[in-house]
Fold this sequence. Notes:
Distance between the termini: 66 Å
Strand order of the largest sheet: 26-27-29-30-28
Number of helices: 3
Largest sheet: 5 strands, parallel, barrel
Shape: elongated
Helix content: under 10%
Strand content: over 45%
Amino acid sequence: MNVIRKIMILCLLVEMVVPVWAKDYQMTMFGIKSDGTTMNTRSIQKAIDFISENGGGRLVFTVGRYLTGSIHLKSNVTIHLGEGAVLVGSTNPYDYDMELKAWYGLILANKQDNIGITGKGVIDGRGRELANNFINQVYSGVIKDKLQLGRVANRPKLVYFRECKNVEIKGVTMMNPAFWTQTYDQCENLLIDGITVHSRAYWNNDGMDIVDCNGALIQNCYVDATDDAICLKSHSADAVCQNIEVRNNTACSSASGIKFGTASTGGFKNIKIINNTVFDTFRSAITIQAVDGGQVENVVVDSLRSINTGNPIYLVVGERREGRRSRMDNVHISNVYAEVPATKPDAGYDYEGPTEDNPRNVSPSGIVGLQDNKITNVSIENVEIVYPGGGNPLYAKVGLNELDKVPEMPKAYPEFSQHKELPAWGFYVRHADGVTFRNVKLTALKKDYRPAIVLDDVHNGTFTKIKVVEPSAGKKEKIHAYKSTKIKK
Length: 489
């Protein structure tokens, strides 16, 4: 077969696999209005249904404001929001549907394939007004909700996709949700690329939640949220959140920047967190948690920059569910630069992180397992962290001769502050086996009564090229080991 014929056959095959549904449909074709006051829910839904039934394509919105309640995305349909197009969420609670009797949402999809939201336009949930309207209906007795601190718990997200395949979210801005901005639950082949998230309209507003997905790439995004910015979760004991890459993103939060494990029922496997920046964030820059029975294994965190963040690194194993043992193994963290402030890093945000349960002294980074369930095989390499120092021993001091007083807290909600006052200012490592620190520099700007690193029940540890900078430290030991064996310094 000659070369020209091979090329012709290849071209024919390419044409065959190009989706026949790659067609644009303008919103005007379906009577969708851009005046910002006409309720377009039925018109938009008709457009989605029509496009899906006729082979698929893009529903294109041009400049304007498009008011809508819940819409359900169908297979082979992409919502494309052109520059200047704003999809505006209704502020009426009764304009929202609940998917799977679980979550309210503006854009919903369940078991759909080849779907997306693209473009340079905006999705505006008007969440604060919407949440307050929910509260009014709760107080009137019409909507049932367990109010928390006077705030409504069950309220709409902007996007909720469940068990969908081949999902593309690209370029758009998502802003002002009433709840978590976007959740992708048990989806496969997910791409989130170059989106902007402003999620500060209400409390407990995550930027994005990747739940039990298999195959996801989150890249080039900017996320600003009142709760965790980029959050991986595992809700199902029958599923695993796996083969996920989080790359080239910037995040700030009133909680944690990049977090996975608060919900860790099934677990996490093969996760890469590469070249991300976290700033002005109340809790951890990166926190990895195994607390609900799932296994966390094969995690790589590389090239993380954290500025003005309450805590750089926190790894923890817990047992929040009686008899459900979690496991954490094979975590590698490298090429990190972090600066921790003495003051509150999210001061001035509309919804700040709560300080009432925090310790008085600045907490160190942590690797904290359980006495009978150790974290295994963790490496920390090429890491530089600048702390404020200045720890005050009068604030519930835990001395080096009383390390057993640090509580285990297996059932606690996992946060770096859960153990209260800790006996180290740089790293606190407890109940771990197979820990390697190499080329780690820890700086305290003021003298601290605590040593830089404390090891408690740590075994098979190697600590090389450790540099500690602390004013007037004298001959204070850099690394204090307690109940630990086979430690090489």
